[in-house]
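Inputs:
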Amino acid sequence: MYRISVRKASALVIALLLTTACIHKTGGTVTPWEKVTTYNAALAQANNTLEQGAESVASSGLATPAQVAPIISVSGQVATLHLQVTAIIQQAQTTTVSLASVQALVDQIKASIQSIPPTSLGLKNPKTQQAFSQDVSSLSTLADAILTSLQAAGVK
Amino acid sequence: MNPVLISEIVSLILQLGPLAMELFLKLEPMLNLGPDEKANIANAIAAANTADQDTLGKVSAWMVANGFKATFVAVPKA
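Outputs:
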């Protein structure tokens, strides 16, 4: 049940965010920096929801605390790294920042997400493990969207 | 918004239940921006920081409550 939720939650995030038409602005065009900060906020929110979902799974008895602990821990790692990404994006409003500094943090976020063992929720079925890998890939795609939008905003 | 996209989102919300609804309700306002660019950017940055701080608080509380050590050491770049 949880693995399905994570996969479809990821799909929901991607469906919402990776379609340019879904960001609306009253009385104007969405600027590149508005896109950057929106993607950035969405990643934080999706990570927050992932953590909540993992807690729910444990509290409902669908998995043991030991099984969900790796996911909750990674969620904490992602939040820690992402706070630094947001700080850089905030600095970029007034000073010049390098894309490489964000790239390094995004790479660490992706490495953290990919470090979740496929068997952490008892996923022994290869097809289910593959589906879980796709979930991870979806979250990584969202992280990449921040980088892509930063480049579009002129950050080098 | 694209009708097909709306249909897909509604379908996903129905299948996911409360968790997806909560995520959708949090994301939806983020996707509807006001006319002031600076305000939009400031709001999005504040939202990101609030969500991350909330996540860290929940993670720490859960780890401690369940007897785990709450460490958030970043995984080194591969």
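Remarks. Residues 37-65 of chain B form the longest helix (29 residues). Chain B is about 75% helix and 5% strand.
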